[in-house]
Design brief:
CATH superfamily of the largest domain in chain A: P-loop containing nucleotide triphosphate hydrolases
Oligomer: heterodimer
Distance between the termini of chain B: 27 Å
Number of domains of chain A: 2
Largest interface: A-B, 38 and 26 residues
Structural class of chain B: mainly alpha
Shape of chain B: elongated
Structural class of chain A: alpha/beta
CATH topology of the largest domain in chain A: Rossmann fold
Order of helices and strands of chain B: HHEHEEHEHHHHHHHHHHH
Strand order of the largest sheet of chain A: 6-7-8-3-9-10
Radius of gyration of chain B: 28 Å
Number of domains of chain B: 2
Chain lengths: 308, 387
C-alpha cells in the first residue's frame, strides 16, 4: 500500500525474514514510503519492529523480497539511510565531540569535513555546552541527543528512529520531537517506532501497525483517526452508576474515558451531553469525530493486553 | 584511510582511559617480574642452592670438630646452631641436623645404628630432602676419606685428589650459557603472560560494542569490517611492544637498584627479540579476537580470557619453568603458545639466537595466529549472516 501519492523513496517489496533452520518466518511485509513523509511504525513487543528496521537498513538479509531506495536496491552502508538504535550506540569513555568526530571519520570524511559535520550535529542537537564532557557522564536525555546527533552526521534522506525518546525527561523529549519535525520540514523522510502513541499521533503523518511480523493496518494518520461510525468519547472523572451509562450505549475505556455509540442509542451528541449533565456527570474532556491512535492500535492488534 | 585513522585514534583514546586495562597490562607484570626475579635469584644462581637448616650438636667431645668442618665446607648447607626441636618451615630453617651424644662412637663404628638424625619441615619437597641428605652424605664421605688417608699416612690434598678424585666430574657446555638466570626467566615469562592478557580488554570492548549496537551502527556507516578490526587490534600490538620494552627496562635498570641481578642485553640479537615479541603479540591478538567472537557477554569473555591465560601459563613454563617439570608435563607444555614464545625469548636472551634461529618458534606462533583468525572470521561471518 502506498501511503501518499508521490513516487516512493522507500519500497519494501514482499519482504520476508526468518530462520531457515527453524523454519520460522517472523516478518512478511510490503510497504512504501514517500519522500518527506513521517511514518509511525507501531506494534506490540515482539511484533518485529526492530527486525523490520534492521532489514530496511540492510543489517539483516531477507529470505525473500527486497528493499528499494529511490527504486534501486538498498544495501548495507548506504550513506543516505541512517538508523538511530534504541541502545546508546556510542563510546561512553569518549566525549560527545570525540564521538561525533570518530563517527564522522568512520564515514570516510577527512578531518576538515568531519569537524564541520560534528560541529553542525552538536549545534543541531544543542550539545555544544556538554561537547567536552565524557558521554558516560551525560544524563539520559543528553545521551539520547548524542545518539541522534550521530545519525545526523550521515545527512540522511531516510532516517529510521527506533524508540528514540525511551527513558528521557519531558524537556529532552520535546527537544527531540521538535528537532525531528524540523528535519522533516527540511526534507528528511522518517520512520519512527515508539510505544508512546500520543507521541506518534502528534508527529507522524502516516502509520503502519505491525503485529506478529505482518502489517495489519496502514494509512494516513488523518484517515485512520477519522471516525468510522458516529461515536463520541467523553472523559468522566467520577462514575458511580456505570450501568446507566451502559444503557446509553456507553463503553468504558481506560483513564476514565467512556465511548458512546450514537447510532445505536439513536441520539445526537447534544442530546447525550444533556443527559449526562442532568444525571450529574461533568465531562472533563469530549472528543467527537476522531478516534485516538490508541483505539486504532488496539483494534488493529485485536488485543488489549499482551504477554511480555 | 580516514576511517582507519579515526578508528585508530578512537581505540587509542579508549585504551589510555581504561585504567583497569593499563593496570593489568603494565603494573601486574612489572610487579611479577620484580618479585619473581628477586625471589628466584638463588634458585637460578650458578653457585647452587642454599639450604638453610639448624645444626644441633649434643655431643661434647672435641673429636666432632673435623666433621663439623666438613659440613661447613658443603656449599649447599647453610647451618645455624640451635637446640633440638625448633619449629621448621619452608620460609625459614628447612631441616634440623642433629648429632646425638654418642655421635663420635657411631662415627668411629663403635656402635650400631644411625649417627646423624635429619628432621625436615613437613611441607619440604622430596627433591629438596634428597638434596639435603646427599649434602650430608657428601660431608660424611669426605670426613671418612680424609681420615682413612691420614691413617695411611697421606695428607688432605692427597685424599682430595687421589681418593675423592676432585675434578673427576666436569660440567661441560657447548660454549654458550644454557640455563637462564632468574631475571631472564622472569622477564620473558611475565612479559608473555602480560602480552596474552590483552585478551581481556580487547574482548570486553568488542562485546560492549556489540551489545550497545555500536558495531551495528558502524556497519550502517559503511565501514568495512577489516578496517574496524585492524584499527582495533593495532593499538594493542603497539601496547604489546611497549610491554616488551617496559619489562626489559625493569630487568635492566630497576632490578639492580633493588639489589637483584640485572638483565644484560650484551650479545642479544635485538631483531630476534623483536621478531619473537611481534609473533607473540600476533598470537595473543588472534586469541583475543576468537574470545571476542565466541563470548556472548563481558563476564564470559573475562572468565575465558583469564582462565585460558592461566592454563597456558601454567602449562607453558611461565609460572614454573618447564625444565623443573616432570617429563609428562614438559611434553604437555609444548601445546601452549606461551611455551613456544618462552622458548623463543630464552633462545634470544640466553643463547643469543638470531632471527633465523627463532624461525621455529615464530612459525608456531604465527601459524596458530592464522588458525585462530580464520576461526574468528568464520564465526563472525556466520553470525552476521544470521544476525
Amino acid at each position: 500500500m502506498k501511503i501518499r501519492g508521490e513516487a516512493p523513496l522507500l519500497s519494501v517489496e514482499q519482504l520476508t525474514f526468518g530462520y531457515r533452520k527453524r523454519q520460522t518466518q517472523i516478518i512478511d511485509v510490503s510497504l512504501q514510503l514517500n519522500a518527506g513523509d513521517i511514518l509511525g511504525l507501531l506494534g506490540p513487543n515482539g511484533a518485529g519492529k526492530t527486525t523490520l528496521v534492521s532489514l530496511i537498513a540492510g543489517l539483516l538479509k531477507p529470505l525473500q523480497g527486497r528493499v528499494l531506495i529511490d527504486g534501486k536496491p538498498a544495501h548495507l552502508g548506504q550513506r543516505d539511510v541512517a538508523l538511530v538504535p534504541q541502545e546508546y550506540a556510542f563510546y561512553p569513555r569518549l566525549s560527545g565531540r570525540e564521538n561525533l568526530l570518530y563517527f564522522a571519520g568512520a564515514l570516510g570524511l577527512n578531518r576538515t569535513q568531519a569537524k564541520d559535520r560534528a560541529e553542525r550535529a552538536l549545534r543541531d542537537c544543542e550539545l555544544e555546552p556538554w561537547q567536552h564532557r565524557r558521554a558516560a557522564h551525560y544524563s539520559g536525555g543528553l545521551k539520547r541527543r548524542l545518539n541522534f546527533a550521530i545519525a545526523l552526521l550521515q545527512q540522511p534522506r531516510l532516517l529510521i528512529l527506533d524508540e528514540p525518546t525511551a527513558g528521557v525527561d519531558p524537556q529532552s523529549r520535546a527537544f527531540l520531537l521538535n528537532t525531528i519535525r524540523r528535519l522533516n520540514q527540511q526534507g528528511t523522510t522518517l520512520i519512527y517506532t515508539s510505544h508512546l502513541l500520543a507521541e506518534v499521533e502528534s508527529l507522524c503523518r502516516s502509520v503502519a501497525v505491525l503485529d506478529s511480523g505482518r502489517i495489519t493496518l496502514q494509512g494516513a494518520m488523518d484517515t485512520l483517526l477519522a471516525e468510522q461510525r458516529r461515536q463520541i468519547s467523553v472523559k468522566l472523572p467520577h462514575v458511580d452508576a456505570p450501568e446507566r451509562l451502559q444503557a446509553w450505549a456507553g463503553q468504558p475505556r481506560d483513564d476514565g474515558w467512556w465511548e458512546f455509540d450514537l447510532q445505536t442509542s439513536n441520539q445526537t451528541p447534544a442530546q447525550l451531553l444533556s443527559k449526562l449533565e442532568q444525571a450529574g456527570y461533568s465531562p472533563a474532556q469530549i472528543r467527537y469525530g476522531q478516534r485516538r491512535l490508541e483505539d486504532v492500535f488496539l483494534a488493529a492488534t485485536h488485543r488489549q493486553e499482551r504477554q511480555p | 584511510m580516514n576511517a582507519f585513522w579515526a578508528s585508530l585514534r578512537k581505540e587509542s583514546l579508549l585504551l589510555i582511559r581504561d585504567w583497569h586495562a593499563l593496570l593489568v597490562l603494565f603494573a601486574m607484570p612489572s610487579l611479577f617480574v620484580l618479585i619473581m626475579s628477586l625471589a628466584l635469584e638463588e634458585r637460578f644462581d650458578d653457585g647452587g642452592v642454599q639450604l638453610p637448616g639448624y645444626l644441633v650438636v649434643e655431643t661434647e667431645t672435641e673429636s666432632v670438630e673435623p666433621f663439623l668442618a666438613e659440613l661447613d665446607a658443603v656449599p649447599n648447607l647453610a647451618l645455624t646452631p640451635a637446640t633440638a626441636g625448633e619449629p621448621l618451615r619452608t620460609d625459614g630453617a628447612l631441616y634440623e641436623l642433629r648429632l646425638p651424644r654418642d655421635f663420635t662412637l657411631a662415627l668411629e663404628g663403635r656402635r650400631d645404628g644411625p649417627g646423624i638424625y635429619l628432621r625436615f619441615a613437613p611441607e619440604l619437597a622430596q627433591r629438596d630432602r634428597l638434596l639435603i641428605e646427599a649434602a650430608v652424605q657428601e660431608a660424611l664421605a669426605r670426613y671418612n676419606t680424609v681420615e682413612i688417608a691420614r691413617e695411611l699416612g697421606y695428607d688432605r690434598e692427597y685424599a682430595e685428589t687421589e681418593l675423592l678424585r676432585q675434578g673427576f666430574i666436569a660440567v661441560v657446555s657447548d660454549g654458550q650459557a644454557h640455563t637462564p638466570s632468574a631475571v631472564q626467566q622472569s622477564v620473558s615469562a611475565w612479559l608473555i603472560f602480560a602480552m596474552f592478557f590483552i585478551a581481556i580488554p580487547i574482548s570486553t570492548t568488542v562485546i560492549q560494542e556489540r551489545q550497545q549496537r555500536t558495531l551495528m551502527r558502524l556497519r550502517t556507516f559503511g565501514m568495512p569490517i577489516w578496517v574496524l578490526y585492524s584499527a582495533k587490534l593495532f593499538p594493542y600490538f603497539v601496547v604489546n611492544l611497549v610491554q616488551l620494552l617496559a619489562m626489559l627496562a625493569i630487568g635492566i635498570f630497576l632490578l639492580p637498584l633493588l639489589g637483584g641481578q640485572g638483565l644484560s642485553l650484551a650479545g642479544v640479537n635485538l631483531a630476534a627479540l623483536l621478531a619473537i615479541g611481534a609473533s607473540t603479540s600476533l598470537a595473543a591478538l588472534a586469541l583475543a579476537s576468537l574470545i571476542a567472537t565466541v563470548a556472548r557477554s563481558v563476564e564470559q569473555a573475562t572468565v575465558a580470557s583469564g582462565a585460558l591465560n592461566i592454563v597456558f601459563a601454567a602449562l607453558g613454563g611461565i609460572m614454573i619453568p618447564t625444565f623443573v617439570m616432570p617429563p609428562v608435563l614438559q611434553t604437555l607444555a609444548q601445546i601452549s603458545p606461551m611455551a613456544w614464545s618462552l622458548n623463543g625469548f630464552l633462545d634470544a636472551l640466553v643463547r643469543g639466537a638470531n632471527v633465523g634461529d627463532l624461525a621455529g618458534s615464530c612459525a608456531l606462533l604465527l601459524g596458530s595466529a592464522a588458525i585462530l583468525w580464520l576461526a574468528s572470521a568464520g564465526i563472525l561471518k556466520r553470525g552476521t549472516d544470521h544476525d
